């Protein structure tokens, strides 16, 4: 195996790790709830990258067997693609919910800085 082919196998995992680290760093350094939500979205995109990296096989076709792709030929696993699509849908829903909660926090408290939010009194 050449150095270039080893690099191409390693690169998607490195990108997924980099996205995870950048997103986590952004979460820890955030002074704004919207920025925190966007950083969580970046962390979640690292899971998409990881799932797609696990499923990648060079020279593999779609799992539809016929004359162009005979049975027994290498193909990708459709389960990981379905998991990635589900992850995207759930991530969009959670992000929308968190943004709606941030709007309500701003309306009630007048700030979206987590440091300035104090516990609600009874």
A few lines on this structure:
With 122 residues, the chain is mainly alpha-helical.
Please explain how this structure is put together:
The chain is an all-alpha fold. It contains three helices and no strands. Helix 1 (3-29) runs antiparallel to helix 2 and helix 2 runs antiparallel to helix 3 (78-109).
- Termini Cα gap: 66 Å
Number of domains: 1
CATH domain fold name: Helix Hairpins
Query: Share of helix among residues?
Result: 55-70%
Helix count? 3
The low-confidence runs, each spanning 5 or more residues with pLDDT under 50, are none
- The percentage of residues in β strands lies in under 5%
Major beta sheet summary = none
Secondary-structure element order, as H and E? HHH
- What is the overall silhouette? elongated
Radius of gyration over C-alpha positions, nearest whole angstrom: 21 Å
Q: What is the number of E strands?
A: 0
Using the coordinates above, name the CATH class: Mainly Alpha
**Name of the CATH architecture:** Orthogonal Bundle
Class based on secondary structure composition and strand pairing: mainly alpha
**Average pLDDT reading:** 85
